């Protein structure tokens, strides 16, 4: 290679390496590699050479060109990386400053329980239905064997709208309405909803509260099925270690009737304030649907049987979230609501 | 219902600790709510040790004892005998309550003050003897409470009864159940008694005029009635059961009721006109003064016990004052009767009188026990010498008890409870409870004992079997669920979806009562207060109506929080039912309200400008975002809305011409009524229409491969013109090609001129199958500008 080309490589390489910015580098590139640049000048010499040398010279120039282009690309990469590093260095943040945020919304704790319970029961094959809050005496009481002079009415002091309509005291009327609506078995439903009793407000009573009614009717439904379904619910809702206790109780619309308690989720059954030192917390009322109730719903108790249950949503929420005063659920204080 | 354990032990033997007995009863359905101590006022007594015994300085026959073992040395004066140092004696000190209710007070006797006394047997109701020193057992620990050391206190079961088991409201009934649960036979039958009678020497009569309300009435006469204090055993048991001892005869009627469950009533025979008992419905406007000295106004639905002319008792509820037993009573008529449950309950409720008797009657007193309980009372009265029973008890029994017989295949019970319930378990359980079983082929015929007024059908029997077998022992097995896709009712699943969208919009959910009152409604709708459904018997003055809207609840929630959280943003929603009158019916629907208050700014976008940072726009933004989740259709906002809003800051919104709701800042006057300082904005939705939209399926439109053409349009219009009107015109003319329209600036200022504003929009056009060019867009833009000019008087802003 002739000396001039060697000088060109040296100078070119030096100039490229010396470029400290992309702009410098671009200028250097055109000074050497463009048509009017140093390489271009050398190319012009080719015409002056004897023809037998032209080919070798041409190849040599090409080598120089490739070499310099290579140097250029290398330098470009170095400068790019340098620039990136500078940019990054300038972007140092106090990462502990508060983030810019869009406020989060929250579900009411009762809705959380509602959703959770609905999900559990749907997975077990129960439809989720609803019924009116203003009910007739027939659906709320009579059809459920709670005639006007029944002593069990003591616990269900009601708000009346007219002689025969009232705010439902329980979600159980949805049992009858569902039997009538479907008119055949199998029936498998839960009906969560609002209920009303003339109870003065205090830490554990509210005139407005919520229940989930449940009903399963088919051929040969037994108490053994009742136990299994409600045990499963308790485990899903309160944790797989929770035990369920079943004992006799009385409801006019079930026979036999069952009261169900769970092992105390605070103390695990050892006894504490929440379970009044008994180790158990009453959580559900249930039973086999009374034959008269089936008849009132238009079904034949000689053909089908079933179980029904009622769960207090407020009570479940209070237990799960350790809320010690039912009033908090209806006060809608943001300092409370924002904890869920 | 409270029952002392020692009384139960008179009937059933058991060795188990009473906590275990309580648990067994509870698990069989007879819930022991609490185990109480018989008396709580045995404090202030202790087993004392004598430190010194000195002669009284002035009275020779008295000694002054200093006794240790209590919190401080106690001084006792006694004339019984000299005591030795170190002797152990039972001592009651200052504050001790004696069986007659009197309290021990310090007393001064010839210059010596004592604050304690040696206890007699009477002092702890051990016997009636007041003179003898209570003999302490050996090794009685010094300092311990005396009745505890004597072991005389009993535990008391406090039962939480279910309303179906009237037969549990007595010692005998509970003993019978306990005997079945423990499998240990009853030691005696309360009704198994004998007593002598004297020959009846006077005429008297019992007549039942209303046998439908009184299936049985027995009346027995007594002479030589002695009214005195009852013995300690009776008094202690009455008190343990929560009743107050009164006198021998009243106590014995209560005692027999507690033991047998049969209420009794004693009349002073000589006060009954013609010595006649007539069981009848009260006449119109009849009155009676009951033993609580209250004049009761009776109605024709109420059953009374009358003599020849006037009511002498409200049947099954309370006796009358004029015929009650007094100190002067010498002749008595004892009533033991059965009354119809519902009638007693109705009477008791309407008179506001709940008594031990009415509570039992309304839950069912077995008709078979009337005569038996009368016999038992006669036996006790005779035994105590409080009266002489006469022969010839009248037993009017028009509706004879016919035992209920239930015939059922044991298999049916098995198929109802669980497969492991064998025939043997069924028969054995029922027999333990006193049912008589007779096998007939593959069926059993079960005779229900007379005291079980709650058993009517085979399902009732199945509960008895399950109870005695033990609910806990029944094996659980999940039902075979046929292939069935469970789901929520569409309305509910839409509510779930809506709540999810609302929470995603940064809103927090509230849940409030369904009540309101007219005052509250007037605060919002002064002129057009909605016609709310009234509650007939409200609990409080502020909860007199069912809410016709969620707005009042929501404004109260805002007011409550406004006080607590200062200017922190509040953004809430409530989705719940509202109620309205619909003829004579009530119609209920779901409703949705959103509220914002405080400086609730969304993170500003680059095109945000000062005057949009008002509450109104914050809420409108939330509503827009929410509705974007509900539907992909265009929502149109138009000036308008109800009077509760600020007149210039409210709008109604529509989809496809259907109103979806309205929103706005709450009228400052309304906010003031609710004492809210900051600006509140509220959105109210026509939820049915929202739900209809939510149910619609979106349909995919193919995405054009061809580039979009963008155009910006700045329109100058008068300040009052709403941007929506301009948008409507742009949309109308852009049909088919316009794919996006964004309002990005509103400018007011000198350049534009007074009373005007410039509104800038970015428009995107796109053709499905080719690239657009200027010739495509020019006519569209021209038409838009032309129509804006014609309809709104607006013009294109020149650059």
Set out the fold topology:
The complex is a heterodimer of chains A (340) and B (799).
Chain A: H1 3-18, H2 22-33, H3 38-45, H4 51-90, H5 109-123, E1 127-128, E2 134-136, H6 137-140, E3 165-167, H7 173-182, E4 187-196, E5 208-218, H8 223-238, E6 244-249, E7 254-263, E8 280-289, H9 291-296, E9 305-312, H10 313-320, H11 328-331, H12 334-337
Parallel strand pairs in A: 1-4
Antiparallel strand pairs in A: 2-3, 4-5, 5-9, 6-7, 7-8, 8-9
Chain B: E1 2-4, H1 5-9, H2 18-27, E2 31-37, E3 45-55, E4 63-68, E5 74-78, E6 88-93, E7 107-109, E8 112-114, E9 116-118, H3 146-150, E10 155-160, H4 171-182, E11 205-208, E12 216-223, H5 232-240, H6 248-260, E13 264-268, E14 276-281, E15 287-289, E16 295-297, E17 303-306, E18 311-314, E19 318-319, E20 332-338, H7 341-351, H8 356-363, H9 369-384, E21 388-389, E22 394-396, E23 405-408, H10 410-417, H11 423-432, E24 436-440, E25 443-447, H12 458-469, H13 490-504, E26 508-509, E27 515-516, H14 518-524, E28 545-546, H15 551-565, E29 570-582, E30 585-597, H16 615-630, E31 635-639, E32 645-655, E33 658-666, H17 668-673, E34 680-685, H18 687-694, E35 709-718, H19 723-733, E36 738-747, E37 756-765, H20 774-792, E38 795-796
Parallel strand pairs in B: 11-14, 26-29
Antiparallel strand pairs in B: 1-10, 2-10, 3-4, 3-6, 4-5, 6-9, 7-8, 12-20, 12-21, 12-22, 13-20, 14-17, 15-16, 17-18, 18-19, 23-25, 24-25, 27-28, 29-30, 30-34, 31-32, 32-33, 33-34, 35-37, 35-38, 36-37
């Amino acid at each position: 290679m002739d000396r001039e080309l060697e000088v060109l490589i040296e100078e070119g390489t030096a100039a490229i390496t010396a470029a400290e910015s992309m702009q410098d580098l671009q200028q250097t590139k055109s000074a050497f590699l463009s048509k009017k640049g140093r390489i271009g000048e050398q190319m012009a010499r080719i015409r002056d050479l004897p023809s037998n040398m032209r080919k070798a010279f041409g190849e040599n120039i090409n080598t120089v060109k490739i070499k310099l282009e290579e140097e250029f690309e290398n330098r470009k990469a170095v400068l790019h990386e340098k620039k990136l590093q500078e940019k990054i260095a300038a972007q140092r943040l106090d990462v502990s400053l508060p983030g810019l945020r869009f406020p989060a919304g929250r579900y009411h704790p009762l809705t959380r329980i509602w959703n959770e319970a609905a999900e559990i029961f749907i997975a077990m094959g129960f439809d989720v239905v609803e019924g009116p809050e203003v009910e007739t005496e027939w659906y709320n009481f009579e059809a459920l064997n709670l005639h006007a002079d029944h002593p069990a009415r003591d616990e269900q002091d009601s708000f009346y709208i007219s002689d025969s309509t009232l705010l439902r005291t329980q979600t159980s009327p949805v049992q009858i309405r569902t039997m009538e609506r479907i008119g055949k078995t199998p029936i498998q439903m839960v009906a969560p909803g609002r209920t009303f009793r003339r109870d003065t407000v205090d830490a554990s009573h509210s005139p407005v509260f919520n229940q989930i009614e449940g009903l399963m009717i088919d051929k040969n439904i037994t108490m053994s099925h009742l136990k299994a379904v409600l045990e499963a619910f308790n485990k899903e809702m309160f944790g797989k270690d929770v035990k369920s206790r079943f004992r006799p109780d009385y409801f006019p619309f079930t026979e036999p009737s069952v009261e169900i308690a769970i092992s105390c989720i605070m103390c695990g059954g050892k006894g504490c304030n929440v379970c009044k030192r008994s180790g158990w917390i009453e959580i559900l009322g249930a039973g086999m649907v009374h034959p008269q109730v089936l008849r009132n719903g238009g079904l034949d108790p000689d053909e089908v049987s079933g179980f029904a249950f009622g769960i207090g949503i407020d009570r479940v929420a209070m237990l799960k979230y350790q809320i010690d005063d039912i009033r908090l659920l209806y006060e809608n204080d943001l300092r409370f609501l924002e904890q869920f | 219902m409270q029952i002392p354990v020692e009384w139960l032990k008179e009937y059933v033997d058991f060795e188990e600790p009473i906590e275990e007995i309580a648990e067994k009863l509870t698990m069989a359905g007879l819930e022991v709510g609490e185990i109480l101590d018989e008396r709580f006022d045995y404090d202030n007594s202790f087993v004392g040790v004598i430190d010194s015994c000195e002669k009284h300085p002035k009275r020779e026959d008295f000694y002054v004892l200093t006794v240790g073992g209590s919190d401080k040395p106690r001084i006792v004066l006694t004339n019984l005998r000299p005591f030795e140092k170190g002797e152990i004696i039972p001592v009651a000190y200052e504050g001790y309550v004696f069986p007659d209710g009197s309290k021990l007070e310090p007393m001064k006797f010839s210059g010596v003050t004592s604050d304690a006394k040696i206890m007699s047997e009477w002092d702890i109701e051990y016997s009636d003897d007041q003179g003898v020193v209570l003999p302490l057992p050996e090794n009685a620990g010094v300092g311990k409470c005396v009745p505890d050391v004597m072991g005389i206190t009993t535990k008391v079961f406090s039962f939480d009864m279910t309303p179906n088991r009237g037969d549990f409201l007595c010692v005998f009934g509970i003993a019978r159940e306990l005997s079945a649960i423990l499998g240990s036979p009853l030691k005696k039958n309360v009704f198994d008694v004998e007593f002598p009678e004297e020959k009846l020497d006077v005429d008297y009569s019992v007549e039942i005029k209303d046998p439908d309300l009184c299936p049985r009435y027995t009346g027995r006469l007594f002479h030589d009635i002695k009214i005195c204090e009852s013995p300690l055993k009776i008094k202690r048991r009455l008190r343990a059961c929560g009743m107050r001892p009164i006198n021998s005869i009243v106590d014995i009627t209560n005692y027999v009721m507690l033991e047998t469950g049969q209420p009794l009533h004693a009349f002073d025979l000589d006060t009954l006109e013609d010595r006649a008992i007539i069981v009848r419905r009260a006449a119109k406007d009849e009155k009676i003064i009951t033993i609580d000295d209250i004049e009761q106004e009776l109605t024709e639905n109420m059953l009374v016990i009358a003599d020849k002319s006037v009511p002498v008792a409200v049947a099954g509820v309370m006796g009358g004052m004029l015929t009650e037993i007094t100190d002067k009573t010498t002749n008595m008529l004892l009533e033991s009767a059965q009354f119809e449950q519902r009638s007693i309950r109705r009477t008791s409720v309407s008179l506001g009188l709940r008594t031990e008797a009415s509570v039992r009657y309304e839950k069912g007193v077995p008709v078979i026990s009337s005569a038996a309980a009368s016999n038992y009372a006669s036996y006790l009265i005779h035994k105590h010498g409080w009266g002489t029973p006469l022969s010839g008890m009248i037993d009017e029994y028009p509706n004879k008890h016919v035992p209920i017989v239930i015939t059922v295949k044991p298999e049916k019970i098995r198929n109802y409870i669980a497969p492991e319930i064998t025939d043997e378990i069924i028969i054995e359980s029922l027999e333990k409870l006193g049912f008589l079983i007779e096998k007939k082929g593959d069926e059993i015929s079960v005779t229900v004992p007379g005291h079980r007024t709650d058993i009517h059908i085979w399902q009732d029997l199945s509960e008895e079997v399950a109870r005695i077998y033990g609910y806990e022992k029944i094996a659980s097995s999940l039902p075979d669920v046929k292939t069935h896709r469970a789901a929520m009712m569409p309305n509910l699943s839409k509510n779930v979806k809506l709540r999810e969208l609302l929470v995603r919009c940064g809103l927090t959910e509230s849940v409030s009562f369904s009540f309101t009152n007219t005052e509250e409604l007037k605060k919002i709708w002064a002129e057009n207060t909605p016609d709310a459904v009234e509650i007939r018997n409200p609990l409080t003055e502020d909860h007199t109506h069912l809410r016709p809207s969620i707005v009042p609840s929501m404004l109260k929630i805002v007011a409550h929080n406004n006080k607590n959280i200062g200017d922190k943003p509040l953004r809430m929603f409530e989705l719940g039912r509202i109620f309205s009158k619909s003829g004579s019916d009530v119609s209920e629907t779901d409703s949705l309200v959103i509220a914002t208050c405080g400086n609730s700014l969304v993170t500003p976008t680059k095109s945000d400008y000062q005057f949009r940072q008002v509450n109104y726009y914050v809420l409108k933004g939330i509503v827009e975002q929410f509705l974007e989740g509900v539907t992909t259709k265009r929502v149109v906002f138009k000036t308008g809305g109800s009077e509760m809003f600020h007149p210039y800051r409210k709008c109604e919104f529509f989809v496809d011409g259907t109103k979806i709701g309205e929103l706005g800042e709450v009228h400052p006057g309304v906010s003031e009524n609710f004492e809210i300082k900051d600006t509140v904005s509220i959105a109210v939705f026509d939820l049915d229409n929202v739900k209809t939209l939510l149910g619609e399926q979106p349909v995919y439109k193919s995405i054009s491969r061809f580039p979009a053409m963008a155009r910006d349009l700045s329109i100058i219009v008068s300040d009052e013109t709403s941007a929506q009107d301009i948008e409507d015109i742009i949309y109308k003319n852009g049909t088919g090609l316009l794919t996006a329209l964004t309002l990005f600036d509103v400018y007011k200022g000198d350049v534009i001129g007074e009373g005007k504003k410039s509104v800038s929009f970015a428009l995107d056009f796109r053709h499905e199958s080719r690239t657009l060019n200027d010739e495509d867009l020019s006519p569209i833009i021209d038409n838009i500008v032309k129509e804006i000019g014609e309809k709104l008087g607006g013009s294109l802003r020149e650059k």
